[in-house]
Structures are given as structure tokens and as C-alpha cells.
Amino acid sequence: MADVLTPPVPNEASASVPLKPLGKVLAVTSGKGGVGKTFVSANLAAALAKLGLRVLVLDADLGLANLDVVLNLYPKITLHDVFTGKAKLEEAIIRAPGGFSVLLAGSGMVEYSRLTPEVRDDFLRIMNGLTPHYDVVLLDTGAGISDVVLFAVSLASEVLVVATPEPTSLTDAYATIKVLVGQQKRQTIRMVINQTARLGDGRAITVQLQQVLDRFVATDPARPIKLVHMGDIPADPAVRQAIMRRQLLMQATPSCPAAMAISQLALKLEETVISRNR
Amino acid sequence: MTTCEHFLLCFIRSSPTLTVATQPSESPLELQQLRLDDARALLDHGMVVGLPPPEESPQAYLQGIIDGLCELSLKDPLTGLGNRRNFRAVQDRTIDGVARSGDPALLLMLDIDHFKQVNDTHGHPAGDKVLQAVAKSIASCVRPMDTVARYGGEEFAVVLPNCHTSFGATVAERIRATIETLVITISPNLTLKVTVSVGGAYAPEWVRSTAALWTERADVQLYRAKREGRNRVCLDHQQEIYVSAEEKNLLFGHLALGDPAWIENVSSEAPGGSASGAMQRVN
User: Fold this and answer.
1) Min Cα–Cα distance to chain B from A1, Å
2) Which residue among A31, B62, B94, B276 has the highest number of C-beta atoms inside a 10 angstrom radius?
3) pTM of the prediction?
4) Rounded average pLDDT over B43-67
5) Which of B56, B154, B205, B246 is catalytic?
6) Angstrom distance (rounded) from CA B106 to CA B161
7) What is this model's ipTM?
8) CATH among 3.40.50.300, 3.90.650.10, 3.30.70.270, 3.40.366.10 for B84-235
């Protein structure tokens, strides 16, 4: 893991300190872009907030995520100002329409997409400052498997991989899972299949991914890798409508099939992941 | 955008007279109105191929100047290799390719050992000859698809796309050994021999890394090679993330195998399909 996440410095010993995942932090990632990762993060946050949880969503793509676009929020103070010492952390946290908090990175963060030890330290410091104040922190990571994405995921206790039934998305999800298993030694990876056509599609896909993993990724029998199917979000015209109106689906049409599926996903996450850490 | 396109764009932006020429049928290009002398002088100095005569076809002439300048802007004048700008562009392109295809790519950083002594003892003209000979030697050791560039001073960089682990170590060693045996003639009664230290790192497969990070990883290996006594190759170990054709095949088993209804359902789902398009932008 240190190999990718740590910028190489001549003294390699100091660079490979393993990262300790923080509790209650859930990374939402996908491999492929355009599968609805930010859509899922934002609406899942709203659904979790509805369950009475204190939720924070963090743009862990450091300025390249479009959380601001999805939520229609353009704050003056962002994570970038916190990093550069211009503002305090609490000033950068804003209230999103769905009853949860958001920490946006700001476009200036792109310069941080090179992960120097300082950036990592800053990021860790911020995450440590955040977690005591929330029941769950969602990290909306970037597309692809970049250093920043892997670093962000390494901070999370749980990973939620969003995929669609399309072959390209499945390949990228599979590659992501391989990286996470290989580099971060993760055993449990949670799956959400977005835009499914029929009931049961997501489960079938998860089983398929699991079978290929079992066959091609050598693992310690004492530490098997487990893909956990957390839910499907059915293809639903209401999703497109909400996105085009730049509203949260959970607010625009809370009773449409996709919104119901996200509510169920939130409930399942609350039961299996979040309540354990509280 | 390729470097050439970028160059062309800047060129067009900076020459307002040229914008007329976008509709050649209406207003023919007036070469006399363009300030081409500086470009012409530059090309006469460092051009590889001659320009077509301007009176024959103004457009071909101008294209020749543009192509020549593009080429010039990517070349190191001393060695004829790619320059740092070229290297960066190739590196970025390769990183994109690696993230997309998962095909491994190798970056080698090479440094001539004790080059300062060559300069100090035999003078800079001798140093230049050594640089040229080493450059030629490196270029002869790699495939046409690979890019050899002068990184700066006596340091060279090689980008090898589509380079599997077993192959990378072989190439690096071939370069090192070739240069070790190279006899460089400086003057009739002076020949020199040099060695190189080579450091290399693979672009992590499937991972969209950055050019700077990749270079740093190769550089660390180069320093290691220097530290361990020079004239040697040190390679970073490879990240083994690779999705084989067999894996892909199995992944889509559910799509291809049993159920035609699956594919039908997915493709007939027009609203879902367009929603995915919308999400592409906001995700």
C-alpha cells in the first residue's frame, strides 16, 4: 500500500507507516466514473440523516468530485481554505438540503492531488477532528483508482463499491476490489449495484464478482475476501429528473423506486455497519 | 489535445491574419502579411526536412513551418532525443493508457556516472560528444514505440508503454550493458568509456497516478543504483493488478451466457440509459 500511497522518499522506512482506518468512516468508490457514485453518496447521506444520524459527506476527490454540482451548493469557504490555514474546519462545514453536513474541497485542492506526506498529515488531522462529531462520515471518492482515491479509502473502516451492470463498470469495480484487497488487505467490501433492470440482478452480479475473485485472487484461507451485497438501486426515470433539476432524489420524489431502494440501503448500513461503531 | 494541436492553436491565436484563411476559397492566404522570418530562421537552423517552396503552395509552406516548429519544440538540440516537454507529454499519455487498459508501463531514469569528471578533464565539447553517443546508444536499445528523452544535464528518461515485468528488467540491463561496452571517440587520439546508473519504476496498473509521482519513484531507484556503487540497474517492484481476458470473460458470464432477457432488459431501458448519461456529468 505504501508504495502507491506514499510519495517515495529516499528514507523508505519512515514512509511506510500503515494507516489506521478511522471508525464510522465509509468510503464510496467505484473504479469507473459515471456510475452514480456522487448521486449515491448524496442521497444515501440524506437517507441516513432521515434515520436520525448525524452525517457528513466529504468530497474526498479533493476538488474533482461534483458534489457541489449535485447539491447545488457553492460555499465561500472550503476544505482548501482549511488546508491553507485561511479558515477553521468548522467554518468550511455547511448544511446540505437533505439534513446532513457537507465538506467540499474547493477547486484549489487540485494542487493537492499529489499526495505529499504533508497533505496526508493534513488530511488525517482533519478526519480525526471530524469523526467525533458525526455518527457517520461518507467519503465521496473520485473516479478511477488514483493515489488520492486509495488514500481516502484507506482512511475508511468500510468501503462501498458502486457499480452498474455494464461490463465496463464491472471490470473497473473488479479491478478496484483487487487493488483494495491486495494493497489495503481488506476482507469485506460492500457492493451497491446502481441502475439495475430487474430484481435480483445486483445479487447475481455480486455473486459473479465473488466467484471471479475467489478464483483469481490468492488469499489466506484464514482471511477470506467477502463481497457483501448491500442493495440495488433500480433504473428509474425519476433519478434523471432529480439530477437535471439538481435536487436530491430523496427530497424530490421520496417514494419513487430508486429512492425507496436508497432508504433500504441506508437502513441496512445502519444495522450492519454504523450502529456497531457507535 | 496533443502538443502539436496546442501549438497550432497558440499559433492561430497569435496571428490574427491567419483567421481569414479558415475559408481558403474566399480569401487566399497572404504569406507576405505573416511574420514568418523568425520561424523560418529557426527552422533553417535546426530543421530535419526542407520546407516546400512558398510560391508553389502557401498552405503547404505554412503547414511545413508549423510542423517544423512542433518538431523543434519537442526535440533536444544536442542529442536529437525528445526534450523534457516531449517526455512530460508522453508520460501523461502513458499514465492515461495505464489507468484505462491496465497494461503495465515502465519508466527508466538514467544518469551517466561521474559525468562531471568528463567535462572537467576533457572539456565541454568532449562532454557533448559523450552525451550524443550515450543518447544514440540508449535509442538503439528500445522499441520504436518507446520514448527516449533527455531529462536534463546528463540525465535521460525512457518511457516504455506496454512493458511487462519480465521485459522491463531485460531492457534496462541491455541499455546498461550496451553503454558499458561503448567506446566513444572524442578525437583521433582520445577515446572515452562511461557507465550509466539506471533506476526504474512501473506505473501502477489501473491506478491513475501522477507524472511527478511516477518520476519520483523511478528517481528513488536511480539514487539507490548510485548509492549501491553505480553502473547498475535498480527497479521498483511491480504492483500486480491485472484483469486478464479470462477474468473479464467470467465477469460477464451472466451477460453472455444464459439469459437473452438480461441484455434485452438493459438495452430497452431507455430512461435508465439516459440517466446514466446525465450522471456521467455530475458524478
Assistant:
1) 9
2) A31
3) 0.59
4) 80
5) B154
6) 6
7) 0.70
8) 3.30.70.270
